[in-house]
Amino acid sequence: MKDANEPKWAAGLAKPPAWRSDGEETLFQNPWLRLTRHSATAPTGAAADYVVMRPKNVGTGVLPIHDDGTVVLVGQQRFALANYSWEMPEGGAPLDEDPFDGVRRELAEEAGLRAEHWRPALTMELSNSITDEIAMTWLAWGLSPAPTDPDPTEIIAVVRVPFVDLLDEIGRGTVRDAMTVATAYKTYHMAMTGQLPPALARALLGRL
C-alpha cells in the first residue's frame, strides 16, 4: 500500500532497518520537556548511546495576512541564543490539545488578532536527529482585533510589514526563526501555484 507521507521518488525503494531502542532512562524532565537516554541499535547494527529531547508540546505558528498583503510579525528576546528574534506568532499546544486550538490562542495572545479564514501550511520535524519535536503552522486571514494576553516572561513588539519585505529580510539573514522562514517560503509557493484566493495571492506577491 502506498504511504501518503512518502515522497513520490521513494516509492519502491528498499529502506534499511529502523533504529531500535534497547532500553530507556529519563535523565531530566520539567513541565516543558523530557530528556531520555537509550541503549540503541543503529540501522547498521552498530550499538549506540542516544539522547533524545522530547517536548511536551507541539510547536504551533501562524502567519497572519492582511488583505493588502502585509503580514504580522512579533519581536521578542530569546534566551537560548541570547538574541532578539522577529517571527510569526508561535507557541506550544500540549500533546492532549488540538494544535489548531493552540495556534488560535497564540494568535490572540501574542498579536491581538483573530482570523476568519485558516489554511494549513506545514507539518515539520525540527532537528530530527536529536528531538522528536513536531511543529505545525497555518496561514490566517480575515483578521480582526482580539484581546492580547502575553506570557508573564514576554515583552512582545508587534509589526505589520509587506510580505515581500519579510522575504527580503529572510534572504538577508535578519529573520532566522525556522518556523517563520519555512512558512514564509510555503506561503510564497502557495500564492504562486493557486492555492490561495487570487486577490490575496496578488496582494502578497506585490512587486514580485
From TrEMBL:
Instruction: Quote the Gene3D superfamilies the UniProt record gives.
Output: Nucleoside Triphosphate Pyrophosphohydrolase
Q: Which cofactor does it need?
A: Mg(2+)
Keyword Hydrolase on this protein?
Answer: yes
Annotated spans, Disordered: 1-22
UniProt keyword annotations, A-Z = Hydrolase
Q: Which Pfam families match?
A: NUDIX
* Domain Nudix hydrolase, residue spans: 55-183
Select a single GO molecular function from the record's annotations and give it. Answer: hydrolase activity
Catalytic activity, per the record?
GDP-alpha-D-mannose + H2O = alpha-D-mannose 1-phosphate + GMP + 2 H(+)
As for family, the record states: Belongs to the Nudix hydrolase family. NudK subfamily.
Can you say what this protein is called?
GDP-mannose pyrophosphatase
Source species: Brevundimonas albigilva
Q: Which lineage do the record's taxonomy fields give for this organism?
A: Bacteria, Pseudomonadati, Pseudomonadota, Alphaproteobacteria, Caulobacterales
